Structures are given as C-alpha cells and as structure tokens.
Amino acid sequence: MDIVKWISKYFRTEIIITNENEKYIQKGNQISKWFYRKQTNNISELKSQNKSFFKIVFLNVSYNINMSRYIQVRANNVSSDQKISFKSGFPVVSFTIPSQNAMLDPRSIRINGRLVVYKNATPPHAGAGGFSGSPVYEDDAPGDQVSMDNRLGIYGVMDEFIVRHDKSKQICESIKNYNRYMQSYLGLTSSEQDLIGHMNQSALIQPNAEAMFKNVVANGTDPGGTSDNVVPKSFSVVTPSGFTRGGSQVNLMTNSFGAVTIEIRLSPDANCLFSRTGALANVANAFYELSDLSLSCEVMDIPAEQLPVLSAQTSGSYTFNTITSLYTTINSTNAQIQYALGLKNLQSAFMNFCPSSHINTLQHNGLAITMPSNADSALAEIKTLQFLKGGVNYPAHYTIRDNSEITGNDTSNQGKFVVGDPQVAKMYYDSVVPEQQVDRTSISPENFSRNYSMIVDGTDDASYKQVYDGGSLFGLGVRYSQYNQGEDFSSEQFGVALETTLTSDNPVSVFLYFKSKATLLFDSSSVQLIH
Asked: Where in the sequence is the domain holding 431, given as residue range(s)?
C-alpha cells in the first residue's frame, strides 16, 4: 500500500497530534512530507518508529471519512418561483455558507441549477403557462436561432465571481470578466475529452457550435400547433479561483472566520447570447433564465475534543494564488500597455482579445477569444511581442517575433500562412498552468491559427464562430514564477508592447489577468487581503 498517496487522498482536515504529551496542529500535506522524509512507504516500519503518532493519525483519518458531510444552501435573493435572470432585474445572485462548528473545504463548492434560453420575451401563444418567452427550437429559421459559447457552457453567464467574509461583507477575492478568464482557463487546462465528457454533463460544455445549439440551447424540434416544449438543462459546476482552489480549509466557527458568502454577477443577455447568423429581427430580445439555484459544499464537523483548540483560532491567515483582472483597449499598429500593479509576488500574466464592437451585442459572440482584427473582419497579425518590467524586456531579454514574419511564411504557392506561433502558444498556456503541471490541454494548430475571419454569419465556414477544436483559443501570456517565488512588481511597472497589422479604426478590447500570491488575514470581525 502506498501510504503517501493514501494519506494525501483522505487526510483533508486539521488534526491534533499527541506525542509524549506534546500537542500541536499539523496539516495533511505536512504529514505527507513527514512520510517522504522517512523515505519509506512501509506502514509496519513507520508504526514501529512512532506508535502514538500513527494511532492519532489513523483515528483522525477515520474521523475524516466518517464525519464529513455535504450541505446545500439556496440562493439568498431569488423570487418565490425560484427563477432568476438578468432581464428581470436580478444581476447578482448570492449564497451564504452559514457559520457552524465545522471546517469548510472550499474546493468542494459547486453552483447548481437549471438553464433555459428564450429567443424573445413573448410567450409562444395564449395559455403557455410557465413560459417566460418563446422557446428555441432546432428547426427555427436560421435568422431565429440564438446560441451560447460552446467552450464556456454555463460559465458564460458568470460575469464576476466574488468571495466575501459574511460578517464584515469585505471582499476576500474578486475576479472581474470571469467568463473570459474561464475561456482561457478551460481551453488550456482541459482536454477535448474533458470538455465533451464529464464537463459536458456538469457545465453544459459542448465540442462545437452546432452541438451547443442542439444539445443545450434548443429544445428539440417545434411540436407545432398550440403545444410547446421547454427542457431546462441542469448543471453543477465548480468555481475555480484562488480562494476555492488554494487548498486551505476555512474555520466556519462564529468566533473564527465564520460564514462565507459567494456572489456571482450575471452577464448581460446580449453579451453571453448571440445570433448564429447575425440577424436580429426575431431575436433582439433573447434572454436566458436560471432556476432552482443552489450551492453545495463539503464540511467536516469538528469533534468535541478539538473544539477548544479550534474555537481559540480567532485570527489567522490563508495563502493562495489570486487573480487580478484589468481591462484596456488598443487601436494602432504599435500598442503599449502599462500598469503599476503594486503586486509583490506576481506569478504570471495573460490576456485575451475581442473587438470592442462585439461586446454586449447579440450579433456577435462577445465571449470569443480571437486575434485582434481590422474593421473589414480580417485578422490583424501580431508581428512582434515584448513583455516589459520597468520599461525593459523581461523575462525574455529580446523581442519575440511571430512566425508570420519569417521570410516566405506570409504567403506561399499553397496559400496564406495560417499556423500560429508555437513559442507564443507555449508562453500562453505556461502562464495559466506551468508546463510541468500540464497533463491535458485542448489548444491545437486549429484553434490557435489565423485561418478564420470575424464574419458575423456563423453559417459561413470562414467565420470565427465555426473555428474547429472548440473555437478560437488565442491569447498572450508570460510566466514569471520560478519555484513559486513570483516576481516583485510593487515598485516597477508591468508592460506589454505589440506591433500588429491593426491599420484600421477598430478598437480591440484587451482583458488582462494577473496571477499573484496573496495572503488573506482574518479575525472574527474583518479580513484584509495582502498582495
């Protein structure tokens, strides 16, 4: 038996270890390190070295398996019919995990519910009880077909993710433009099999635009006459962020950290829905509706013998990698982006792009992450790229030249050169998850290519709405961290210099995300996040 893997898997709570009348608290991962220092996985040998140690360890492992439980809480601010939508005036949905004598595992937090998309706000006919609008059907005329981004699924409706300390209402973590963050995160850290397998079931993610329309948005074929059919699509998703993926358990006792509030700001209908052809005559008022929303999570009840110790934990800290999100625009062949971040332990930075005219319009997919483009729908190639620290190239001490600039690659006898630059692609996914931790990804020569245009009609194979391998996955990124130390940007500016072929007046939105190590200090009445 591999005791290291066994303990790592099941040992997920704080324990009290008693050895020769000395008491102290250790985390499960520290115990795993202790096993490694002994350089053995032989359980008999380890028991003989420290019998009292192992007696307590296995007692607590047994407790951990038997005493953990799942709880479910309803949304705080929904109407009596349990339906919520941006259109009906509910731009924020919140959940509160109540204070109790238990430890919360933030990694287990899931948002559950059901989704329905309507093509307009008018019920299909008199007497259509329970319908908030006209359902979408597979056999609707092409101009009446509305859809969602297939890589995002239900994450497309999440515009901002917020974690609050419930007692003080102070923010522990906030990620703006969360859906666009998830575009890069899901594409770079999940394989195509993940996206069409278990994430298809849990997050309503689909392999392509056609599957998204038929399997999630549409409700089968129109039954005709006065009959209608609405099939709500169920989802249950985790919410990746620094707080929820940091690995630290949260003490929910009233005199410690206490209750936790999760808030989700919903995306406007016009930003997460779009017409498949760009026609708006019959879908100008399309909207989505959520129902039966709940939050579920795992908590571990604190046994009576540990209550005195954990109830004395009236203050403490949690360390995790958090995301800082910023927004800007570029509109020239030479773009300069500079920010005084004030971040001391910057791990990495990445960004994705979208034409500003595509945001909050049902004509276009406002959540697609594409290359910058010109007003004529042609892509604007990135010729050179520089990441700067204090105005100097860093960490690469040279200018990165895109492979489209290599002589002979611009055009050839076979046609236009469309393959994306592999170095830029590697830097991009390395900025989201370090290379040594990447065991699956869906980035490919198809979705990181230049082989599409910003044509609005999604029935055209050349449109960005029809890019193979799940849709366009373009972005830029850089990793600073070596051995998780991070880079100090507290006194020097972060910068990016781009030379592009953006020659027309067509502003391009840039969504930037900075991953940095942060420490959340707390007491029973307040919190403070230190970057």
From this structure: 317-521
**Average pLDDT, integer, range 142-160:** 94
Instruction: Measure the CA–CA gap between 471 and 371, rounded to whole angstroms.
Output: 12
Can you say whether the dihedral through the CA atoms of 279, 212, 428, 185 is positive or negative? positive
**Residue 108: DSSP 8-state:** E
Give dist(CA 349, CA 478) in Å, integer. 6
Residues 228-248: what's their mean pLDDT? 90
When divided into structural domains, the chain yields a total of 3
* 93, 266 Cβ separation under 8 angstroms: yes
CA 465 to centroid of chain Cα atoms: 21
**Which are the contacts of 348, defined by CB distance < 8 A and separation ≥ 6?**
430, 431, 432, 477, 478, 479, 480, 481, 514, 515
Mark whether 354 and 256 lie in a shared domain.
Answer: no
For residue 280, the 8-state DSSP code is -
Beta pairing, strands 287-301 & 102-120? antiparallel
Where is the domain boundary, 22, 38, 67? 67
Question: How far is the C-alpha of 125 from the C-alpha of 228, rounded, in Å?
Answer: 9
Encoded amino acid at 420, one letter: G
- Give Cα separations from 525 to 11, 94, 97, 257, 312 (angstroms): 30, 20, 16, 8, 14
* Predicted structure pTM score: 0.85
